[in-house]
Amino acid sequence: MIKVEHLSKQFVKKKRRINVINDFNYEFQSGKLYLIKGESGKGKTTLLTLLAFLQKEDGGKIIFNDIIVSNLKQEEKCNLRRKEIGIVFQDYNLFDNLTVMDNVVIVDVLKNKINKEEIYNKAKDIIGILGLEDRINHYPYELSGGEQQRVGIARAILKNPSILICDEPVSNLDKDNAVNIVEFIDGYCHNKNKIVIVASHDDYFDDCADYVINL
Ligand SMILES: Nc1ncnc2c1ncn2[C@@H]1O[C@H](COP(=O)(O)OP(=O)(O)OP(=O)(O)O)[C@@H](O)[C@H]1O
């Protein structure tokens, strides 16, 4: 469970302070898919980055299970994120000069010097599940957008995170690829009992979302 209480985030733009997230309260439960909607600039990405501990809130607190994340040191937050949260980005965020396999394992191999073989084996399984086994030694420029996004998802779920956060995961994709990715994310949430939080301005996630949060 991840819970936010009185969450707020402000930015200064052109010398004016704007409240992007203002006294936001919510509880996210396992096995539920939360769809964040809102016009451009309403704060969808900002909210996701707060929930992923990628930036610090200005007010309120974030509670993950019984841990008050807001009270943790930066390093503790990073460790918690690495263990519990997977993040999928709109523009895939892959390393151009790494193969599919290396893109999926890079962070974990660098951070975990001991169980490298285990990490590679797990990555191979996940890459297979996502239908990319033939692409394992290919580079991002050799892949379609849908395939690149599946690599992004494989990387995000490598550690079987309890929370999957997706920022516009299908908005760069054609319909077939988008539907494919939506089905996978839906299954990750509902078959594996995970918290999934998706920001999306299109309607692909409307049918599988349990809750819609309008910003
Ligand atoms: N680091 C920052 N510094 C200043 N302003 C910022 C910063 N990050 C976001 N903002 C502003 O906060 C507001 C919300 O931005 P955010 O990216 O969260 O919106 P969004 O709903 O995800 O938009 P979009 O759908 O266009 O991606 C915008 O006005 C944006 O310019």
UniProtKB/TrEMBL annotation:
The taxonomy runs: Bacteria, Bacillati, Bacillota, Clostridia, Lachnospirales
Q: Which PANTHER family does the record associate with it?
A: ABC TRANSPORTER ABCH.1, IMPORT ATP-BINDING PROTEIN
Residue span(s) of domain ABC transporter: 2-215
Q: Which InterPro entries match?
A: AAA+_ATPase (IPR003593), ABC_transporter-like_ATP-bd (IPR003439), ABC_transporter-like_CS (IPR017871), ABC_transpr_LolD-like (IPR015854), P-loop_NTPase (IPR027417)
Q: Does the keyword ATP-binding apply?
A: yes
Q: Nucleotide-binding among the record's keywords?
A: yes
**One GO molecular function term?**
ATP hydrolysis activity
Query: Known PROSITE patterns for this protein?
Result: ABC_TRANSPORTER_1, ABC_TRANSPORTER_2
Pull one GO CC term from this UniProt entry: plasma membrane
Write down what this protein is called: ATP-binding cassette domain-containing protein
Record keywords: ATP-binding, Nucleotide-binding
Read off the SMART domains from this record. AAA
